[in-house]
Every structure is written in structure tokens, then in C-alpha cells.
Specification:
By secondary structure, the protein is an alpha/beta fold. The protein folds into 2 domains: 234 residues, Aspartate Aminotransferase, domain 2 (3-Layer(aba) Sandwich); 128 residues, Aspartate Aminotransferase, domain 1 (Alpha-Beta Complex), CATH 3.90.1150.10. The chain is 40% helix and 12% strand. The two termini are 27 Å apart.
């Protein structure tokens, strides 16, 4: 096995080249042409979203959401430490402080029972992160947000086409952010979307996205010229990116079904090892419908995780860990955090291992991953 089994390989539907050729033929390369608008409309209609604004990345969507929250110097934003840097950076760049809350042991999502204790008069937003396409406990989080007048912003980077009590992730809070990065279920290299669920934020969101101008109003004929009216940035993706993405979104159902098959194969094949308490498999609480974004296992301790990681690597299998908790990072320490502040986050992140997961993984490749994991424990006499 010369090349081995990669951790990820972006799926190509076959329509991408046709759609890219149409962009070139149309000579409309900048945002908000046919393909940008088609992606937004498809997401709006499928997931019942009031308005979707396509962005160059999920990072861009989160940055827009942070500005819409009104966060600034001396403000605080509640979020898990077990997330990507973009979740925190979106607010830190505005001068706000991330307030990290520990995670649940079952889903690895923010522990909703700890959020209210972390609230202060300076709290501007709560940012739940839906890890692995499994929903946070959104009813309780929304209840807290409404009770205290705090905005709820969903980081649904991993949650496109996953659901909480039949509501699409990203559509439940005031705002939601999607990712279509190379590693996600539906890919465009780098692309994202901001879900506008609170209509009161829409007008300013359009301005922020268009470099602080009211250009969208001008294009709709609502003003006779456009000008600088607020702070903003360039948060528009190109038509080229959205042409690629549309080919993916149109194949959402078959892509999701294939990922379900891969997920179920891992789960059923590794269940005997869980029954022997050698590892733990992912958990989806009642009411949470996964999009099968990734498959992870939790090992008993960090040494076992690292040993298995090395064993798989030697077998040509590219498994990987996930986030280094933000509170324990060099940047996190600048906010006064230290080791042991979030014990579950630290423990679980050190035990987690993600397995190769991509649409075109062969049955023989997946079987090899499963056999290699079993072989690791057998060699230890377990």
C-alpha cells in the first residue's frame, strides 16, 4: 500500500467543470451573480432560512456575526474552548474577550448547564459550536439568551444539513455560520455562508458584507447612489467558488447517504471494542439528526490515543487528533486561562482520534482501518 489511506479527500460530483465553464462563458466572476444567488436560494429553501448571505469562508461569516452582535472592547462572549480558532478570533479582533465554558462528556458540545454561571453584564453573545454535526442543546441555550437579552450565534461550520428537533443547525439562533471548506461534507475549497435568522440584523449584515456601503440597496433601486454608511469588509465570494459549490449542494442527499453508510460501518464494526470498554464511540442524543460530518473514537487516555495514532500511521492510515483547546493555547493564556481550568475539555481532547472519512473511501480501505484498530488492541493483549 504505497500511498496509504488519506484522512480526507474532497468529493467531486462531476458537474463542477460544467458550472465553472458557464461562469467563464458569462464573464461574470464577482459575487452575487447566478451561482452565488443560486447557492443562497438553495440553502434558504431547503433549510427554511430567512436569508442567506454567501461569504468567502465560515471565518468571514463568523466575523460578520461578531460585528452584528455589537461586541467590542471589554465585552465578553461565551463559547467552548474545544473549537477552531475562528470562533474566538471573530470576537477577539474586535477587542472582546472569549469566556470559555467546559464541554459535555457525551457530545463534546458546550455544556449548557454551565452557560448561565458564566454570564456577566458584559456578555454580548453565546456561541454554541455543533461538534461533528451533532447539535448543542439549543432549547436551553436559546432560553438563556432570551432571558438575559444576549444574542445566540451558532457556529455550524460542521453542521450543514444536520438537525435539532427537525430544525436545521444554523437556523435556530439569531445568526448561524456555515463552512464549505475542503474538509466539510459539501466543499468549494474555501467558502461559507451567514444565516440571517433575526430579520433585524439583515440590513446591517448587507452593509458589512459590502465593505460598509449600502450598495445592495442601490442595486435594488432603493437609493440613487451608494456610499459608505458603516464599518465593513469584503465578505463576498467569487462566482467561481459558488459555481463549484452549487454542484455540491445539488447532490446533498446522495452525499449525505454515502456518509451515513461510512459512519454506520465504522460504528457497527467498532461497537464490539466499545462493549469491551477499549474505546468509546460518538453519541447522538435524542432529537439530534447527524450529517455524518466525521467519525471519532475516544480512547481511555492520551497515551493509548497516541499509541494508536502511531500504529495507524505505520500502517499507512492517516488518522488525526482534533482541536488543541483554545484556553490552553499561547493566545488563550493571554486571557488568563491555565491548564486545569476546563478539565473535561482537556481530558476529552487528549483522548480523541478522528478516522479517515471521505465519500470515496473503499470498503476495503475502511475494513483495513477497522482491522488495524482491532489489531492494535490485540497486540496489547486486550
Amino acid at each position: 500500500m504505497s500511498e496509504g489511506i488519506p484522512f480526507n479527500r474532497p468529493f467531486i460530483t462531476g458537474k463542477e467543470i460544467e458550472y465553472l465553464a458557464r461562469v467563464i462563458e458569462n464573464r461574470k466572476l464577482s459575487a452575487d451573480g447566478f451561482f452565488t444567488n443560486s447557492c443562497a436560494s438553495l440553502l434558504q429553501e431547503r433549510f427554511d432560512i430567512k436569508r442567506v448571505l454567501m461569504t468567502p469562508s465560515c471565518t468571514g461569516a463568523l466575523e460578520m456575526a461578531a460585528m452584528l452582535s455589537g461586541a467590542g472592547p471589554d465585552d465578553e462572549v461565551i463559547m467552548p474552548s474545544f473549537t477552531f480558532t475562528s470562533t474566538a478570533n471573530a470576537f477577539v479582533r474586535l477587542g472582546a474577550k472569549p469566556v470559555f465554558v467546559d464541554i459535555r462528556p457525551d457530545t463534546l458540545n458546550i455544556d449548557e448547564r454551565l452557560i448561565e454561571k458564566a454570564l456577566t453584564r458584559r456578555t454580548k453573545a453565546i456561541v454554541p459550536v455543533h461538534y461533528a454535526g451533532i447539535a448543542c442543546e439549543m432549547d436551553r441555550i436559546l432560553e438563556i439568551g432570551r432571558k438575559h437579552g444576549v444574542m445566540v450565534i451558532e457556529d455550524a461550520a460542521q453542521g450543514v444539513n444536520a438537525f435539532y428537533k427537525r430544525r436545521a443547525l444554523g437556523t435556530i439562533g439569531d445568526l448561524g455560520a456555515y463552512s464549505f471548506h475542503d474538509t466539510k461534507n459539501y466543499v468549494a475549497g474555501e467558502c461559507g455562508a451567514l444565516c440571517i435568522n433575526n430579520p433585524e440584523t439583515l440590513e446591517r449584515a448587507e452593509v458589512i458584507r459590502e465593505k460598509g456601503t449600502n450598495r445592495d440597496k442601490f442595486l435594488r433601486g432603493e437609493v440613487d447612489k451608494y456610499t459608505w454608511v458603516d464599518v465593513g469588509g469584503s465578505y463576498l465570494p467569487s462566482e467561481i467558488v459558488c459555481a463549484f459549490l452549487l454542484a455540491q449542494l445539488e447532490m446533498m442527499d446522495p452525499i449525505n447517504e454515502r456518509r451515513r453508510q461510512i459512519h454506520d460501518c465504522y460504528y457497527q464494526s467498532l461497537k464490539p471494542l466499545e462493549d469491551r470498554r477499549l474505546l468509546r464511540l460518538p453519541v447522538a442524543p435524542e432529537g439530534c439528526s447527524s450529517n455524518y460530518h466525521l467519525f471519532y473514537i475516544l480512547l481511555p487516555d492520551v497515551n493509548t490515543r497516541d499509541g494508536l495514532l502511531g500504529h495507524l500511521k505505520n500502517s499507512g492510515i492517516r488518522a488525526t487528533f482534533h482541536y488543541v483547546p483554545l484556553h490552553s493555547s499561547p493566545m488563550g493564556r493571554t486571557f488568563g486561562y491555565k491548564d486545569s481550568d476546563l478539565p473535561l475539555t482537556e481530558e476529552l481532547s487528549g483522548r480523541l482520534l478522528r478516522l479517515p472519512f471521505f465519500n470515496e473511501i473503499k470498503d476495503t480501505e475502511q475494513a483495513l482501518v477497522i482491522d488495524s484498530i482491532a489489531g492494535f488492541f490485540n497486540r496489547r493483549g486486550l
